[in-house]
Amino acid sequence: MLSSFKFKKGWSIIFALLVLFQTAVGANTIVAEAQTPGAAVNSQSYEAEAAVNQLSGKAEVKDCELAVGCSGNKLVGSLWGGSALQFNAVNVDTKGIYTMTVHYISGDPRSLAVSVNGGGTDHYDLPKTADWSTRGTYEIQLELRQGENVIRFDDEGGYAPDIDKIELKLLNAGPGTDPNEPPAGSGQVYEAEGQDNKLTGNSAVRSCKAETECSGGNKVGDIWGGSTLLFQKVAAPAEGIYTLKVSYISGDPRSFSIRVNNSEKETYSPPATANWDTVGVFSIEVQLQAGSNTILFDDNGGWSPDIDKIEIISSQAPGENPGDVDGIGNIGKQIDSSKFGSIKVEQHKSGVTLTNGVYKIIYNTESGLSAFEWNNKTIAKGLYSSIQLDKQLDSKNYAEHLFSMKKVEKINDGHGKGIRLTIENRESGLPTMKQIYQIYERLPYFLISQQVTGKDTLSTNDMAPLVLNAKGGIDFGSYSDNKVLVAPFDNDAWSRYQARTINTSLNNNNYVSSELTAIYDNTSRNGLVIGSVTHDKWKTGIYWSGSDNRLNKLKVYGGFSSPTSTHDTIPHGKVTGTTITSPQILVGYYSDYRQGLESFGQANAAVAPPLAFKHGVPKGVPVGWNSWGAYESDLSYDKVVAVSDFFKKNLQKNSFSNKGNVYINLDSYWDNLSEEQLKQAVKVINKNGQKAGIYYGPFVYWGDNMSQVVEGTDGKYTYGDIILRDQSGSPLPKVDGAYAIDPTHPGSKQRIEYYFKRFLDYGYEYIKIDFLSHGSFEGKHYDPNVQTGIQAYNQGMAHINKVLDGKMFISASIAPLFPSQYAHARRISCDIDGSLSRTEYQLNNLTYGWWQNGTIYPYTDPDYMTLVKGGSFDAAQSRVNSAAISGTVFLSSDDVSNPAAQELMKKLLTNKQVNEVALKGQAFKPVEGNTGTGAADTFIMQEGKDYYLAVFNYTNAPVSKTVDFARVGIPSSSKVKITDLWTNASSQAAGQLKVDLNGAQSKLYKITVK
C-alpha cells in the first residue's frame, strides 16, 4: 500500500488528458499511486479488456454484471480450450520484483499459466470465488524489466478464470519463506476493539461467541452503510513493507477498502469464512512509515466483514542460523566399527557414519546436523528434523544427540536386508525426538523417519523428518538446466505436474509438491529423488526454495493441506498420542532421475503392494468402451445394446480386444436404466462375448436434501448424518459440486455395500470409482480413532476392497496418487475429451508420472478415447497414440450411431501393431523433463533389443523434429531398422531420426537394433 498521488490543478488536467489519449489509441489505462508530481509510479492497474491487449482462441471481452463490480464493467472470459489473454504495453519505470494482483471471477476452482516477456510459463491454481458473480484476488510475484513488458495468461488447454484486471506493485526483492510458518519477524497485534481506535457510522464493538475464539473475546461489527474502523496508533520500527494479517469473520463474501496513512484506499475481497462464527485470516502487504501509522477499514457504503484484530509483521525476514554446516564432517577419531553385510557403521568421537558402498551418511552429534554423500561427493548438508507442538522443536537444537552401536537393529523387509539406526535427541523438559535411518544393502536410497515421545499426550499436524535451511545445502554439481518437480496431490481439476527452475525463491507456497519430488539437472539427468513411502496417516508436502542452481530450503513434512492441491478447507488433522511417528521418507541420488522416480515407485510398492488380480479378473490391459465421452447424461439401454453390437461386428475380432476380453462400461447416469434394463444389459453384453462394467462415486453426495435416507441403511441414516463436517459440525463446502461423505461412517459403508453387491449380483465385472479424493478430506470423522483424512481414506477404500472381494477390475478415476494399493488402475490425469489440447494435457501427466505404471499400479489409465472430438484425423490418431503409450486402460468412447465416429473407430482401433503396443501395458518414459507445465513431445520404451518411440506435434502447424538416438537411449553406433507402426513403412538410420509431422500429428515407431 503506497501513498496516493495528490494532484495540483495543472497536474490533474495533464494527467486526465494523458488518460484520455491512451484510451483513444487503445492503450492500457494505468492508474498510478505516488506521493508527489513526477514521483515514480508504484502501483499500476491494467484492464483485461483494453484494446491494446491480444486475445486468442475463444477468449473474448464480455460485459460484467453490475453486482460483480468489475473495473470498467468489462472482463475477459471464455478462456478455455487453448485460449489466452496477453497484456501488452505493461510499462514500469523500475526493473525489479513486482506483486501482480489478479482480479478474477471463478465460480469453481480453475488454473492458469502466466509468462512474462516470452519466458517460461508458471502454473497457478486459483481458489474459487464464492460464485460467478463475485470477484476475488490472487497475488503472484514476478520480475519485470524497465520499460515495456508483456504478460500472458494461458488456459493450458483447460479452463481458466474470467479476468477483470491486474495490478502491479514494486516489491523489495528478498528470499522466499516457508508458507507453512508465519512470516518471519516480530508481529505486533492490534485488537479491533482497542481503546485507541476510532469507529464511525454503524460500527460497534460486539462480543464474540466462545466458539468463535476471537482474540480478547470481542470484535468490531456492523461495518455497513458508510461505516469505518480506524486503527490510530500502529507502530513500525522502520519504514518499509510489512505484512498486514487481518483476522475477520464473514459468513458470506464481503469486501472492505483499506487506507494506510494518507494513501489512496484500495478494495479487497477476502474469502467468505465457513460461517459467522469462524475467524479467517487475510494477508496483504502494506507500506508503513517509521513510527506511528493509521490503518482505516471502510465499507465503501456496502457491507464489510467483522474485524477481530490485525497483526503487523516485518516482511524483511532475518535469516535462520543454519548451524555449522561446513563442519559436519569434523567428527573426530573413530572409536568403534561394525559391519552388517555390505553396510558399515563407524562411531566417532563426535558423530557416526554409515555406508552401504553406494552412499554415505554422516551425522555430527555435536551440531545435530547430517550430510549425505553419493560417489564420494557431498550432495546434501545441514539436514535435521522438526516438529510443531506448542512451539517448534528442531532436532539440531537439542542438548544431546545420542548414538549407541548396541541399538543398531538388523532388518529384512520388502526393500531387502539392512539395518535400522537411531539417533536420540534429548533435553530436559522436552519430549525425546528419534531420527531413524533405514539402510539397505546395495540400494541407492535410504529411508528416514522421526518419532517423538513424551510423558504427556502430544498433538501435531506438522512433523518434518527432513529439513534444510542452509544456502547451497543441496548441490549435486550440475548447473545446466536444474529443475524441481512439483507433483499434484491428485488428478482433479486438470491438475498438472510442473518441472520448475530450481532458482525459485518467490511465491514458493505455490510450489509445494505432494508426496514426492525430484531435484535434477535435465541435461545430465543427475538428480536427487525424495518422497514418502508410507501413506497410512499423513499427507506429505515438500516445500523448497533455491537460487544459484542449488537448493537453500527444504521441508519434507507430514501435515500438508491446501485448498488448491488437496482441496482441503481446514488444516490437516492433528495426530495425537504419547508417541507420534512421521511419514517415512525415501532419499536417493541417481545418475538418471527417471530411474530414481521408478525406484521411488518400486519402494512404495515394497511397502504397500499393488492390488492383486483374483477370481478370474483378467490380468491384461482392459480394452473396450466407456459411455461418458459418447453420451454423458444421455445414456440409455438402447445405446448400450447398439455399442455392444457394433463392437462385436466391427472391432473385437479385428485386434481391439485383449485375448478376447472386451469391456462395455456404463459410466455415470447408468441409473437412467431401470433395474431390469441393468440386468438385461449384462446379458446382452455377455452374449456378445464381452464383459460389463459400471460406475460409482462412493464418497460423494450430489444432492442438497440432508433428510434424504441413505440407500442400504433401512432408514437408519440420512445424508445429513454421513456427510463430512468440520470440527464445529458444519458441512464441508462442496467440491466439484458434491458434498464429501465420511468414509468411516457406518451409513456410508452400508451404502457402498448396497450398491456394490447389486453390481456383483447383476454380473458387472469392472467398476470405475470416481471422486475418491473427497474421501481424503480433512474433517471430523465418525470413527474417533481416525485423526486425519488419509486415515479415513484408507478405511473407506479397504472397505470397498472387502465388499468387492477381488471379483471386479477396479479403476480409480479422480483419486489421490497415494495410497495406491486399492485399485488395479488409476487415471493418470483428469478427463480427456479427445481434443489436441487435452491430449497434450494428458501427456504432461505421463511426462512426470509414467513411473506409477507397473510399480504402485498395475496399469495407468489415460482416460477414454473420444476420436470424433479430435478435430482432425491426425488429432484423433494422436489421441490413440497417447493412450497406447500410457500404460494403459484402452477404452474407446464414441457414439456408434455417428457415421464419422464409426469411420474413425474402424480405422484407428483396428491397427494390430499399434494395439499390440497398448496391450504390453507399459508406460513410455519421457526423453526430456524440462517442459514446465507442458508435456514432453518424445517418449521411449525399451523391450529387449527393441525400442518403441512416440513423437508428437501439439500445434496445428507442420513441424520437423530430429530425434537424437544417444539422448533417447538407443545405441547410436550402428544402423537400426525403423518401422512406422501405422503405415508399416520401414527404413534404416544411424545416430538420429528426422520426423516430419503434420499439424496435430504424431508417429509411433518400432526401432530394432541390428
Describe the structure.
It is a single chain. The chain has 1010 residues and is mainly beta. 15% of the residues lie in helices and 37% in strands. It is built from 13 helices and 62 strands. The strands form 12 sheets. Strands 23, 24, 25, 26, 27, 28, 29, 35, 38, 41 and 42 form an 11-stranded antiparallel sheet that branches. Strands 30, 31, 32, 33, 34, 36, 37, 39, 40, 43 and 44 form an 11-stranded antiparallel sheet that branches. It has an 8-stranded parallel sheet with strand order 53-52-51-50-47-46-45-54. Helix 4 (637-650) runs parallel beside helix 5, helix 7 packs parallel to helix 8 (789-804) and helix 9 (836-849) runs parallel beside helix 10 (873-884). It is globular and about 85 Å long.
Task: Offer a quick outline of the entry.
This protein is mainly beta and 1010 residues long. Strands 23, 24, 25, 26, 27, 28, 29, 35, 38, 41 and 42 form an eleven-stranded antiparallel beta sheet that branches. A hairpin with a 2-residue loop joins strand 56 and strand 57 (946-952).
Structural class: mainly beta
Strand content: 35-45%
Largest sheet: 11 strands, antiparallel
The value of Rg in angstroms is 30 Å
Quickly count the helices: 13
